[in-house]
Amino acid sequence: MARPTILDLAQAAGVSVSTVNRVLHDPAKVRETTRQAVFDAAVRTGFAGLGTIRNNLYKARRKLRVGVLLLQRNRPFYDNLAAALTEAAAQAREADLAIRIDYQQDLSPDGTAAAMHLLAKASDALLVVSAEHPLVTRAIEDLHAAGTPVFALVSPLSAGCPLGYVGLDHWKVGRTAAWAFDRLLDGPGKIGILVGSHRYRNQETNEAGFRSYFREYPRGFDLLEPRYTYERATIARELTESLLRDHPDLAGLYISGGGITGAVAALRDSGRGHEIAAVGYEMMDTTREALRDGTLNFVIAHPIQSMAREAIAELVAACEPEALPPRAVTLPFELYTPENI
Fold first, then answer.
1. Which of 39, 46, 209, 257 is buried deepest, with most CB atoms within 10 A?
2. Are both 84 and 179 inside the same structural domain?
3. What confidence tens digit (pLDDT) does each residue in 58-77 have?
4. Same domain, 310 and 190
5. Residue spans of the chain under pLDDT 70
6. d(Cα 144, Cα 125) in Å, to the nearest integer?
7. pLDDT (tens digit, 9 = 90+) per residue, 257-278?
8. Residue 92 to residue 83: CA distance in whole angstroms
9. Same domain, yes or no, for 52 and 67?
10. Domain range for 206
């Protein structure tokens, strides 16, 4: 068979011959998506200049610096998320990415705002996990004015400027947790609720969805007022112990915020873990083991790998020369029981 010509390659890629010539000889003048389409067509057709296109594709990749601001270091969920984001950045084809991941030990609003400004000095775009606060909002607006796109990750944020989001529909998360309790419990009873902080919009929305389900389907459950863990395992343990002590008839516990390792430890050590229906958040070693031994009955989790890939792709797209405003990407969540881990 005759070797594919430039005309054959152009037809296979759905572009003009002149575009293929630019990909071969002046790739910087061709959009990344078009260069990639020509490369893919060259692979399919066995085009003789495949090596040249591959080299040009690599050389012409934009160099971007991505900054990520997560919560405290050594928390399993954020350690897993950091690893997934690092891998997604390394595998990104759209640009040559340098990723920097910082952790917030100081979760105060002024500490978060200061960390965002510091990270932005070395970044073309930011991905941030943060509580909602006017100081954080102002930081987002200042960074937008300076030309740095910002995306909220895990927990939505608000601002008077375009702001992206990559995460779950937390109202649905809350209603799904309520649906689980509705089926786990034989009859009405008290359900305790642990939330990291009222300023994390994802957790507040989780609780709103949770309560909305039982307003729609009243079963006689007594939903206790939420107790705040402030994202600390030690506080979550203390609060779980106090719930067990104050409510001997506690039937369920919804752990919708940070500190789940402490709550699980308290349930397990109490000896009542198998008596209480417990629904938790995020899949990691602690929650997996708790599902195995019956301390937890149901876990709702972020799809960490796909969330990382989506977040990196959105950051790269937001840095395009004529990019559209950052958008919200809502991902389907994962559900785990003792039977599917």
1. 257
2. no
3. 665 678 999 999 998 888 89
4. no
5. 1, 53, 56-61
6. 10
7. 888 999 999 999 998 888 999 9
8. 14
9. no
10. 170-301
